[in-house]
Predict the structure of Gfo/Idh/MocA family oxidoreductase.
Amino acid sequence: MRKLNVGLIGGGFMSKAHSLAYATMPMFFWPAPAIPVRKAVADVNLELATDARDRFGFEKAYGDWRELINDPEIDIVDIVTPNHIHAEIAIAAAQAGKHILCEKPLARTAAEARTMLEAVEQAGVTNMVAFNYRRTPAIALAKKFIEEGRIGKILNFRGTYLQDWSADPNSPLSWRFQKSIAGSGALGDIAAHVIDIARYLVGDFESVNALVKTWIPERPVQTGGLDQLGTVKSSSDVPKKPVDVDDEVSFLIKFQGEAIGSIESTRNAHGRNNFITFEIHGETGSIFFNYERRDELQVCFADDPVDAKGFRTIYTGPAHPYGEGLWPIPALGIGYSETKIVECYDFVRAIVDSVPCSPNFRDGYEIARICDAVLESGKTQNWVNISSID
Ligand code: NAI
Ligand code: SOE
């Protein structure tokens, strides 16, 4: 069976998720399209890289990502670093002819994302952006129902992505609150996932009209290190520095075509953990999803008997998308890891079959344009057409 050597750049939260997916994908999807081999991992220094190598089961460690890209054994470069370095790494990897999986958001701005798109298109390498939530079987089932016309023409998409890990003003100023590293705040970090889902299920955006807020204007300094995602609180003597990204965005959407919609997103919503929801209304039915109950898809079809009409719950399982590889009984429990395993399967399959990935860098660029438009609209308080963003 064909093998593909993986070079992973970054040794934090997402390194755990991606390493687990490379190790387990063939156990779920067998015969696997190819076997991913955990060949090398790079981090900012050799000590961190060696630690990641031993923890995540890689063969080699590099203290500089350039060494990994120059390693002729590497077929796939997987970028799981903070956002500011995605572009430089992806462009170098494309020029070296490597296939690329890059974490979201693709880049800090649309202009930066465009340089990455140009590089992969010029090199002709397989490229994917890790918007993994659309690979939750229930969301893929929603897509199937929409494509089959089960809810008719789509009228409205209402999405949310709410978390609470940054609600405490004493949680540190990690890289996620610094524009120079993250690009934007809740917008690029989490709303981008819902933008991906909206584009996947409904289609391209025409324009947006946004409110953009920073509720906590400064936080205690965190110098370097992994983002602890609010699990660490700083003592009162730690100096504070400004937050220069958004804490919350709320925007209306006009889709291309006639559908309308909205997305709301914050990481300061007490009691909300990974509250990705959407409700879609079509002319002949509705669909509702909540990631905190991710085995379930709620549907209501207009032609249900009138005395039984209402939302009903489908528990995803073998009869549904990716069911052939995942668990043999509905509701055994889809987790975050499964979305990454499916992502790994689709990515490796696209390399082996030489077909484009979805979402790829073009999708990542389109999402970056939408994010730029949201920020622009937040400033001007006007509708901003996506076509006005390069
Ligand atoms: P993290 O802070 O946990 O880890 C980042 C890692 O990258 C650290 O090991 C750090 O030392 C390393 N790093 C930083 N600069 C580097 C460089 N120049 N060369 C090599 N290594 C470098 O960050 P986390 O949460 O893993 O986020 C990484 C990326 O994944 C971000 O783009 C983030 O937006 C994305 N992400 C995506 C998720 C998803 O659900 N798809 C979930 C969490 C993060
Ligand atoms: C933090 O908000 C975070 O880790 C995001 O970076 C991810 O993209 C999201 O899926 C989970 O939350």
Remarks:
- DSSP finds ten helices and 17 strands in the chain.
- The chain has two domains: 3-131, 134-358+367-380.
